[in-house]
Structure formats: C-alpha cells, structure tokens
C-alpha cells in the first residue's frame, strides 16, 4: 500500500486547454492532487519578432510591437517608440506625450478588464466576462476613433503621433473614466466578499518578496508580494513624473492580493487619465525634426528640402546614431523593455524585447508547489500572462 | 546606498575592461572568465534584480557574440549593464543561475537563439523552438526564411528587401 | 381541420388548402443543412491576438450565439467548427493537426485573421505561412485582427456553405 501512496502521476495540461490563457503547456507531476513539480513548456507561439525586426527599418517596426502584447497595444507601441526616441535623443512635443499617457492608461484599464473577466470565468463566475468585455468595448471605441483600429493601432510614431486626436476626445474619455470606477465597485462587490472567490484565491500561488526579486518578477505579481517597484515611479518616462498616483502593494503575495492590486491599479489609471486630460493643450503632435518625422504635406508643395526629407525618410528610413539603449515602460504585466542596438544604419542590429510575462512565468513552478491541481488555473490567471509576450 | 558613477568605477576597478556611457546608461565590459564574480559584486552593490539577459551577434566582427546582463537596483532605482564578449567558435560562458535565479530561462533562450552554451546550467535545452530544431535562429548567418509571395506574371521582392540596409556609421 | 372520420376519397378543396398550409415537404439535405448551419459549435482554439477578437465576438456586443454558436466547446470531439484564430508557429503545427483530426465529421475550419490565412505580417522561420498548409480551410476571414463583425460575416458565409449541403464542398 505504501508503494501506491508514493506513486506520482504526470499530467499534461496541453497547449490546447481552455484555461491556460493561450498556448501554454504544463507538465505537472502530481501526488494525488498535490503538485510536486511543474515544467512549463513554451514556444508554441514563437513568432520570430526579434529576427523580423532586424530586417526592417525603425519605422516599419512599429507594426510589430502591438502584436507582441496584444492586450495592451498602446503601451507596447509606447515602449518601442520611447526606445527609439531615446536612441535618437529626442522628445516628442508635449501634446503628444500627454495623449500617449492617456492612451497608455486606457490600454492598461482594458487589459486589466480582460484579465478580470477571464480570471473570473476560470473560477466559474461566468457573468463577469460579459460585463468586463462590454466595458472594454467602450475603451476600444475610443482607441478606434483615434487610430482607426480596435487593436493593432500603429498610431504612435517615432517623435510623436500619427495624427491628432479627433474632436470630442476629451469628453469621450472623461465619460468613460467616470463610469469605470462605478463598474469596478460593482465587480468588487461581487468578488471581494464572495466566499467562493476568497477560498479559491487566498493563500493560492503565493510568491514571496524575495522570490519575486530573485526571479525578476515585476508588475502586479511583484507588487502583490510587496515589492515596491513600478517603472512609472522608478524610472519615469514620457511625462509620468508629473502625475500624482499611488502604486498599490499587497502583503501576502497570493492570488487575492494580486486581484486587489490590479483593481486598485485600474482606479489609479483613471486618476492619471483625469490629470492628463487637464493638461491637454493645443499644439503639434509630431516632432519638428525632419530627419526623424515626415514633413506635413502642405510643405511639400512649397519646399524642395521637405521633398528631399520625405524621400529620404520613406526610401531609407531614419538612421539613428550607433549605440545601445534600454528603455522600459510599465505594462499591465510588469516591466516591458526594449533593448535596441544600432550601428548607425537604417535597420537595428538587435531588438530585444524584455518580456515581463517570460520572467513571471518562470516563477510559476515555485508558486504552485504543494498547491492542488485545481489551483493551477487560478495561479495562471493571477499571473496574467500573454503568450505572445512570453514567446515573442 | 547611492551607487554613483565613481563608486561603481571604484568597485569594478580591475574587473571591468571598459565602460561605455550613452544616454544616461552605463555598460561595463567584463572578461568572460570573471562574469560570475562581476555579477556577484553587482548584486552586493544593490543591483539585486536581473532584469534581462540577452546576446548580440556582431557577425562578421570578432569577438562575435556579446552576452548582456541588465541589472536593476530597486532602492534607489538604478540600472547597470554588464557585457561579456565571446568568440564565434564554440561560444561558452559560465552560468549566472547561482547568482540570479531569473537567469534560468533567459539563458535557455540565449542558447536556443544563439547557440551560446552556459556552463553549469541545470537544464540547458531549447525553450522557444521545437526540441529537434536545427540551427540557432537569431544568428546573423541564419536566414529569415521568407517564403516568396505567389503572384502571376510578377515576382515581388521579399518584404525585407523592399527598403535595403544602408551602410553602418560607427560611433 | 381534416376530420379523420371521412374517407380520403371524400376530400374537399378546403382540405387540400389546409394540407398545403400545414405540411411542407423538402429534401433531407435541406433539413440537415438547415440544422447543421444554425448550430455550429466552435472549439476553443484561440492562439493569439485574433483570439481576443473571437472572444469579443462571443460577448454581449457582437453576440455570436445569436448565430447558433452558443457554446465554444473545450473538447474537439464535441465541436464541429475550428476557428484558427492567430498565428500558427512551427511548434504548434502538429498540435493544430492533432486537434483537427480529433474533431468528428462533418467539420469546418475558419481561418481567422491574416496569420492563419497566409502568414500575415510575418514571413519568417518561426511561422507556418497559413494554416491551410496543414488543414483544409473553408472560409478565410481577412484582417489583423478582423473585427468581430468580420468574423460573424465569415460565419454567415460558412453557414451558407453548410446549408448548401455536401455537394457544395466538392472543392475540398
């Protein structure tokens, strides 16, 4: 009888699984229902972004980042253009910076709403998925009115934005962020005092603060464990140093704390957007440097230089100075960084995407050790991974 | 503890072969035999988090590979990059897993994409490509493998050749 | 009302009109096609970004269930439609084929998005350039990602194809 008790089962939660939030494969070794060892197998969505980006110009590469982290698309574009702007040593005009902040925070809210809906449906709170996606649709409507696309916008440019926001942008965004905190309150009432939700998330997938630092876990996972690290506060970028917001921290590092951290982050994002809308003033949205950004079309009929600049930018692309930069933003999953190496030509030598989900997922075996197999789903949901980001 | 540039220079004196400052970032070049020592030193100097571990292929220049370690200090926030150069023939370097646990998967990815072996790694195998894949995709001599688009009566250029690469302009 | 107490030879015009109103005749193919096309159940096969738009299509704003796809089945054995939503990498290709083979006949495939149709924005070593290299595709929905309405339009096109019966699938 004791031999049977020591036998372990190896279970494959294959790449095709309803609850793995993407094509993640877990090979789990179980003793009864208790998890002993986990081996995540990734790579089922490897797209070769980094190699593809080495074969295109800096401007052509703007297409790829939103497809890497496809839930927080504006933040991803922001990350890439900030890295190139750092390489060039330029800053976009103020109006562009403020609009970028508004769009990035809207993207963050949209991403957290998807996380909330899918996490809830994993624990079988099925109605919340509909509500969260409905709220997300309102944000996507704004993003669509600005860029023309619901998801892969291609709106940000090196040196600013593609074009100015449409009329009524401020009031539309203001309307949305009036409603979001009210809806969040409803969702919190549904979940935070819900016995089933608490039983399933409290004490589950605990990650200590030391482990979070050892594994480089940033974002709501690190902050849920008490690690006070938010790129917007630590290495401010794109005008974030002007805004007044708090970074929520958890204590125990379990799934429930991460849930509370993300809910509070959504409210803080609304706060940032409100401040940003107050700072929105008329002005240009694209930098004036003709070596970086296309001249406005009116100039092309008047100035020969503008035509030459346009020709050079379209046929060759920008040629930043040789060097290496690393520029990070705070994505809804953690620190999203772009490490760009340039040799002075029009193509990057290396574009490295520092992916938060990759590092966060590395800590998964640690988090679900000695948990039940039913907690794997809750754990993966609480990490909020995006496989496009993990595999690139 | 504030690690100003002078403190860092002093601490790494004798260990770092060179330093590059570009746009408020510091990159220290370290000989590859002493990389673990350098990482431990940086960890003691408050750079406790390994944010990223990656490699660059400088083919056809020698030394061909450069392994970059991006370290972050949390309080106060600061960043440091360490670089180790590796030759093109049989590139190998000691593993950083004993210093930073985050290096486990990051080194597997560098091995998968570049073929750089990390000596002492507990489980060095492919992570992103299928297990039986041949070749290391991010190397410069590995082609992009673009499938030609099928058109009638016209052979379009492959997408990466539409805007050709301009010659590099060194620093 | 047809009275049973009368002999069929005594049928009147009113009886004939009542018969026309209450009984319809058709072919088995049309009934089966009508039933199949209006209850297509997809298998949950979201791969990448297009999966998010597929989920959006299943939510309350675009509501795929009014077209019959009430449930996205987790098990391929219980599904008859595979919406390949997202890019298919080399590592994922055998899995796609495996899931497709596990589905029972009759089954259909919608290649949602540019990556599933033809490789999309990406043309490199890591991706299969179009899922039709692995499995037969019935409807291609273009877009990167296609709007949920585009997916629903593709679904209605597929429903027309299904309702037309097996003869319409002679190209496969």
Write the layout of secondary structure elements.
The complex is a heterotrimer of chains A (392), B (171) and C (172).
Chain A: H1 2-6, E1 9-13, E2 25-31, E3 34-41, H2 49-54, H3 65-68, H4 73-88, H5 94-122, H6 127-147, E4 156-157, E5 160-161, H7 169-191, H8 195-201, H9 209-214, H10 220-224, H11 231-234, H12 255-278, H13 297-300, H14 304-315, E6 323-331, E7 334-342, E8 350-354, H15 356-362, H16 364-367, H17 375-383, H18 387-391
Antiparallel strand pairs in A: 1-2, 2-3, 4-5, 6-7, 7-8
Chain B: H1 5-11, E1 18-22, E2 25-29, H2 35-44, E3 49-57, E4 65-74, E5 77-86, E6 92-94, H3 103-114, E7 117-119
Parallel strand pairs in B: 2-5, 6-7
Antiparallel strand pairs in B: 1-2, 3-4, 4-5
Chain C: H1 13-22, H2 28-37, E1 42-43, H3 49-57, E2 81-85, H4 93-102, E3 108-112, H5 113-118, E4 139-141, H6 148-163
Parallel strand pairs in C: 1-2, 2-3, 3-4
Helix pairs in contact in C: 2-6, 3-6
Q: Please, could you describe this protein's structure?
A:
The complex is a heterotrimer of chains A (392), B (171) and C (172). By secondary structure, chain A is mainly alpha-helical. Chain A has helices at 2-6, 49-54, 65-68, 73-88, 94-122, 127-147, 169-191, 195-201, 209-214, 220-224, 231-234, 255-278, 297-300, 304-315, 356-362, 364-367, 375-383, 387-391; strands spanning 9-13, 25-31, 34-41, 156-157, 160-161, 323-331, 334-342, 350-354. In chain A, the strands form three sheets. Chain A has a three-stranded antiparallel sheet. Chain A is globular, with a radius of gyration of 22 Å. Chain B has 171 residues and is α/β, with parallel strands linked by helices. Chain B contains three helices and seven strands; from the N terminus they run αββαββββαβ. In chain B, a hairpin with a 7-residue loop joins strand 3 (49-57) and strand 4 (65-74). The two termini of chain B are 33 Å apart. The model of chain B has no long low-confidence stretch (mean pLDDT 86). Chain C is α/β, with parallel strands linked by helices and 172 residues long. Chain C has a single domain (40-165), classed as 3-Layer(aba) Sandwich (Rossmann fold). In chain C, strands 1-2-3-4 form a four-stranded parallel sheet. The longest helix of chain C has 16 residues, at 148-163. Chains in contact: A-B, A-C, B-C. At the A-B interface, helix 2, helix 9, strand 6, strand 7 and strand 8 of A face strand 3, strand 4, strand 5 and helix 3 of B.
């Amino acid at each position: 009888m004791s031999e049977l008790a020591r036998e372990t089962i190896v279970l494959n939660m294959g790449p095709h699984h309803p609850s793995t939030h993407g094509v993640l494969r877990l090979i789990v070794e179980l003793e009864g229902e208790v998890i002993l060892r986990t081996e995540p197998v990734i790579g089922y969505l490897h797209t070769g972004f980094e190699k593809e980006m080495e074969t295109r110009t800096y401007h052509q590469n703007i297409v790829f980042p939103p497809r890497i982290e496809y839930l927080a698309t504006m933040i991803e574009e922001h990350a890439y253009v900030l890295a190139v702007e750092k390489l060039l040593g330029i800053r976009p005009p103020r109006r562009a910076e403020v609009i970028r902040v508004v769009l990035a925070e809207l993207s963050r809210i949209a991403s957290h709403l998807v996380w909330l809906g899918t996490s809830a449906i994993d624990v079988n709170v099925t109605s919340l998925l509909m509500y969260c996606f409905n709220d997300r649709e309102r944000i996507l409507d704004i993003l669509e009115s600005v860029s023309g696309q619901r998801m892969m916008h291609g709106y940000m440019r090196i040196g600013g934005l593609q074009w100015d926001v449409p009329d009524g942008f401020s009031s539309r965004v203001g309307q949305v962020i009036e409603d979001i905190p009210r809806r969040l309150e409803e969702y919190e009432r549904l979940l935070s005092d819900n016995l089933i939700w608490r039983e399933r998330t409290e004490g589950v997938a605990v990650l200590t603060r030391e482990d979070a630092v050892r594994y480089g876990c940033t974002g709501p996972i690190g902050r849920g464990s008490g690690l006070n690290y938010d790129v917007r506060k630590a290495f401010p970028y794109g005008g974030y140093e002007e805004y007044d917001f708090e970074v929520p921290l958890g204590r125990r590092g379990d799934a429930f704390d991460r849930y509370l951290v993300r809910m509070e982050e959504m409210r803080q994002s609304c706060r940032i957007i409100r401040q940003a809308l107050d700072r929105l003033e008329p002005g240009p949205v694209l930098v004036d440097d003709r070596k970086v950004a296309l001249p406005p079309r009116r100039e092309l009929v008047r100035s020969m230089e503008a035509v030459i600049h346009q020709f050079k930018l379209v046929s060759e692309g920008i040629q930043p100075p040789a060097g290496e930069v690393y520029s990070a933003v705070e994505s809804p999953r953690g620190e999203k960084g772009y490490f760009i190496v340039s040799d002075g030509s029009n193509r990057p030598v290396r574009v490295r995407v520092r992916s938060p989900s990759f590092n966060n997922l590395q800590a998964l075996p640690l988090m679900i050790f000695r948990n039940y197999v039913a907690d794997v789903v809750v754990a993966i949901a609480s990490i909020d991974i995006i496989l496009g980001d993990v595999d690139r | 503890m504030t690690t100003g540039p002078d403190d860092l220079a002093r601490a790494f004196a004798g260990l770092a072969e060179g330093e590059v400052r570009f746009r408020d970032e510091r990159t220290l070049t370290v000989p590859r035999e002493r990389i673990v020592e350098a990482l431990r030193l940086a960890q003691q100097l408050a750079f406790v988090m390994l944010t990223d571990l990656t490699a660059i292929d400088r083919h056809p220049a020698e030394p061909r590979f450069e392994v970059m370690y991006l370290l972050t200090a949390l309080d106060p926030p600061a960043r440091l990059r360490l670089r180790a150069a590796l030759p093109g023939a049989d590139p190998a370097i000691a593993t950083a897993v004993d210093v930073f646990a985050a290096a486990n998967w990051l080194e597997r990815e560098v091995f998968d994409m570049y073929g750089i072996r990390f000596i002492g790694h507990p489980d060095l195998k492919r992570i992103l490509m299928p297990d039986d894949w041949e070749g290391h995709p991010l190397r410069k001599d590995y082609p992009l493998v673009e499938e030609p688009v099928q058109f009638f009566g016209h052979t379009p250029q492959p997408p990466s050749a539409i805007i050709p690469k301009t010659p590099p302009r060194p620093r | 009302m047809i009275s049973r107490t009368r002999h069929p030879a005594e049928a009147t015009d009113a009886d004939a009109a009542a018969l026309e109103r209450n009984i319809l005749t058709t072919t088995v193919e049309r009934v089966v096609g009508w039933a199949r096309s209006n209850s297509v159940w997809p298998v949950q096969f979201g791969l990448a970004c297009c999966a998010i738009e597929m989920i959006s299509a299943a939510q309350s704003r675009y509501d795929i269930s009014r077209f019959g796809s009430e449930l996205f089945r987790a098990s391929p054995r219980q599904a008859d439609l595979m919406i390949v939503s997202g890019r298919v990498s080399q590592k994922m290709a055998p899995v796609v084929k495996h899931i497709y083979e596990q589905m029972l006949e009759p089954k259909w495939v919608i290649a949602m998005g540019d990556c599933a149709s033809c490789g999309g924005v990406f043309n490199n070593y890591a991706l299969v350039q179009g899922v039709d290299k692995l499995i037969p595709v019935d409807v291609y929905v273009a877009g990167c990602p296609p709007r949920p309405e585009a997916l629903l339009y593709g679904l209605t096109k597929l429903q027309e194809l299904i309702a037309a019966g097996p003869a319409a699938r002679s190209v496969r």
